[in-house]
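Limitations
The structure tokens in this dataset are predictions for the assembled complex, not deposited experimental models. Users should treat interface geometry with appropriate caution, especially where small molecules or nucleic acid strands are included. An illustrative entry is reproduced here so readers can see what is and is not provided.
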Amino acid sequence: MSSVSLRASVAEDDDGQAVITFEAVSKTYRDGTTAVSELDLVLPSDQVSVLVGPSGCGKTTTLQMINRMIEPTAGSISWDGTPLPQIRRTTLRRQMGYVIQSGGLFPHRTVLDNICTVPTLLGWSRARSRSRALELLSLVGLDRSLAQRFPAQLSGGQQQRVGVARALAADPVLLLMDEPFSAVDPVVRADLQELVKGLQRELGKTIVMITHDIDEAMIMGDQVVIMRVGGRIAQMGTPDEILDRPLDDFVAGFVGRDRGYRALTFAPAAGLPVARIRSVRSAASVATGSSPAVVVDGEGRPLGWADAAHGSTLLPLGATFAAETDTLRAVVDAALSSPVGLAVAVQSSGRLAGVVSAADALEAVRRRRLQVAERHGSAVAAAPDDGDAPSADPATLHEEAGPPADPAAPRQEVGHPPTPSPDRRTTPPPDGAAPAGPADDEREAAS
Amino acid sequence: MDLDWIARNLADGQDIVGLLGLHLVLALTPVVAALVISLPLGYAVSRTRAVAGPLLALFGVVYSVPSLALFVALPLVLGTRILDPLNIVVALTIYTVALLVRSVVDGFRGVPAQTRQAAQAMGMGPLRRVLTVELPLAMPVVFAGLRVVTVSNIALVSVGAVIGLGALGELFDLGLRQGFYTPIVVGIVLIVALALLFDGLILLVQRLCLPWSRGAAA
Ligand SMILES: Nc1ncnc2c1ncn2[C@@H]1O[C@H](COP(=O)(O)OP(=O)(O)O)[C@@H](O)[C@H]1O
Ligand SMILES: [Mg+2]
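Predicted assembly:
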């Protein structure tokens, strides 16, 4: 993948200034609906800002005021200090990539021509646009053989990737995304989230993204802006700030009542000390006075607990967690649901791996929360590789998936793990992700 | 059937072939003219909100004016001679516009709002948006309308025979007056063949021009 040229062209854009600034911006539609009122907002450069909130709270209105598809009725918006009305609409928009639900692709144009839209508007030569479009196809993990297809001949996920490629075509500084992934199924969505996060790290784009899905906001956002109806900000901050300290009941309710607990969704379980535990084939074989044991079947898969205190009855197993791949949240779940206070870990084969005590699990939670509190504001970009990592069997990569939980180990910057971990499909990506490779496409291939 | 009559008429290249050519000119000129008029008109109507309904109803009324009445009235309005082919062309153009505007309006209205928005967000100017995004996306519906008006025009031209200018329709007139059915059969066969031929031709053009719309809007 040729990210070198892409990176070079944004190299000078590292001044870290606010890109888009809203000052007391309001928008009242002709019918009297006030979609946005008195909005003050700073969308910093080189970061992903996510606007999240219930439907109709003014997210799209806010986003479309940035590329002047909607003009505010009061207040002002500026881009790097220049008031937006001073920039021609078409000029402005050609510098801002735009992605919407289902890609919003032009059905009558081929994939290639769709991607070439803005380069063509900018007057690039046909050859240059074409080669740029092909380059982008690879970058978003699509095979070049799709170049001559029409959008209707692609799967939803592929269309969305083309939408991202089209938005990136003229190398815009800013990317606006309006619920870009809400039309695809969760598995494809996770891939796309990974793709965009990877591209963002690699290309250093400023991204403003809308979603109504708080989980997506937490996964994608460096900065999360929670909006309430009327286009007012309920709270803004990093995902962890919001999870840890929701300002009011609205935010708490929106983020989920199990706040704090939800934060654990993003911390990996791998690295927790998994202790050995005695396993028995029958609950009756536990001698009086001995400690609890796990009852397993002939294949070594846990069935339940046996505890001398409860005689020879088989106690329910409770939830289990996958030792290498699950999150801290799953461990706490397992510990809390265990009749003996021990979370049962299983291997990917389903065999018993060991146990984690509730005390250890809670200690990991405490450390995690401490880490979260310390981390704010520090983000050193460890340049990830090109995303060309061979797409090995995900199972073999489990081992290197998460940062170590050992507090003595050097702390890692969350959001920039040293190892891309492709196995993020079914669980939300913990803290960052590598760009997805072309290998993903078999599953998405059109009918 | 009198095959000799057909042979004679074909040989001197006058009657049948001449009428066929005239028929095509009278039927297709209005289609082309109406398309040129309907595209901007239909686009404009599609952009209006409250007025669009009444406007379309008006076009419906125009279409229901009996063709004969129009053929007879037009010379008075246009100041043309009663036998001027222009009468037929103008009358059919009016009908064709009345039908085609509806298709154009439907076509433009059917353009997905998201696509329209995407075009705007990419930084296309208004004219480019209409010409390179909305118009092509409206075309499958317009083509469907085009097929209907073309076939109906090919049939309608023969009504002009009543005022002495019906192209192939004059064969009906001839046959009826002389009690001789060959010209009638020839007229019918040719008119049906023409209709089928042009219907197929337009479909072919659509396939070639709009390769992305296979199977869409019919
Ligand atoms: N063109 C419009 N005219 C009138 N009201 C509108 C228009 N667009 C949006 N609204 C209203 O403004 C509010 C905010 O809309 P929007 O910004 O689309 O919200 P969101 O993207 O958060 O769902 C809603 O109440 C919506 O009905
Ligand atoms: Mg919206």
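Some entries come with short summary sentences. For this one: Chain A has a mean pLDDT of 77.
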